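Posting for a labmate who doesn't have an account.
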Amino acid sequence: MTWRSWLRDRRLPVAIVLVALAAGASQLLLLWLGPAPRTRDIVGPPRSGYTLTNARVIEYGIDGKPGVHLQAPRVERREGDDSLYLNSPTFQMPSNQPGVPDWKGESLYGWVNKPGTVLKLQGPVNMHRSEFTDAHGLAQAEAFLHTSDVTAWPQQNRLETAERVQMAQGDRRMGGVGMRANLNDNHLELLDDSHGSFPPRKR
């Protein structure tokens, strides 16, 4: 029996052995020529997601003073994402002015990015500010603001939305589509289709 006839009679086992040898050689070549394994950037065990119930979150500014306060029956941080997801949040945004009450509000959902610099209030957003007496001794009526899908920058105390806005303070009414607001100086800008009514003050 020649070696050719021996190989012909055992073609299947020989083919299996050759394929196994080729696979092993290619794996060794890959390990030799391939890049070094990546080192982990995070020391310690991986951070897992978690869920909080009846949670309170306080955003502090770079000056160390408390800023936005958030409360929610459910707060979730998902695995691999350091941002926060809030269900039915309520919030308080400081006026940063002596004697002026904070703005308080609520929305359907909320989202806070990892550094805490951006807050998204999703769904209907309702805000109000209690009545007060200003620095000139004038009574300021309670104010209400109704809109949806608001983006806020807590450290600058700014708000922005592209949706329809309705605002009322006493007998005064304003409305429009799209808004930019700075709560530090009570600056409000309506971007489109703005309208309002401003009856004279009572003396």
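Reply:
Got it, the structure tokens are right above this. The chain has two domains: 3-32, 54-197.
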